[in-house]
Amino acid sequence: MNELRLVLSELVVERVGFGIFVLDRELNVVMWNRFMQDHSGKTAEQVIGKSIFASFPELPRVWLTRKVESVFQLGSFAFSSWEQRPYLFKFDHDRPITGGVDFMQQDCTFMPLTRERDVVAVCVTISDATHASMMQRARDEAVAKLQEYADRDGLTGIANRRYFELRLADEFARWHRYGGELSLLLFDIDHFKRINDEHGHLVGDTVLRVMAGRVAQTVRVQDVFGRFGGEEFALLLPCTGFDDAMFVAEKVRRAICETPIDVHGTRVTVSASFGGTQARKDATSSYEALINEADAALYSAKRQGRNRSVGFV
Hints:
By secondary structure, the chain is of the alpha+beta class.
């Protein structure tokens, strides 16, 4: 009966669908199952009795040595997920190459093998987690896409008001804590209702998209450009003082108005009015106050004849 158990045990070890190998204290290979042979291309005869690093010099020597030694010292299981370390061995996988992974993603378990309470060897199992990793990556990408869509204005593709105000709140809190400079511009398209009335809403939508594209190409990567609603837009300018912010306002205004927008043969002349302000320690109590100041400057620009930039004073 004992001989039968031994035969069955060896058969199971050879036929299981995951890798099993055993290391002694010097990290010499003591056992090597069929899974490891099939995926590594090295037979048991080639690796048993040798250091694992002699057969696989590309293995992470420091990490693996520390992992195995901790099992010898503590006598407890250790585990490594593909999320922590994608793989231990560079095994090929059988998933589509479009999955975005080069090698089999692996979960590794390190199990102490004891005799009379002493750890005499460590059994390492390698589980193929490629499918799970690809599914997780697909879910993460889908969630990221949904989040991106939630943060973007559907018409222009720039930040929507909710996301813009979140970034404004963050930047304001950072400015309030560490100091520096922070400016905000609000602007809208002059007589936009007239554009919709004379040319139709499809032309108006195109005007907004083209205008947003021109502005996005004009501002810096670190600036935040968002749609506040309708034809009103906002520019958050971190690390930017008032004079520089008003220079940006003029630069953006010219980018908008210098070239008419051609929509299916219809040339639409567009201009914009800007209001700008800067956060000030002695006067700006909240990011909402910053919005109110920029809004007041914007209406001042409209009262002065539109198509101009006015700063809050």
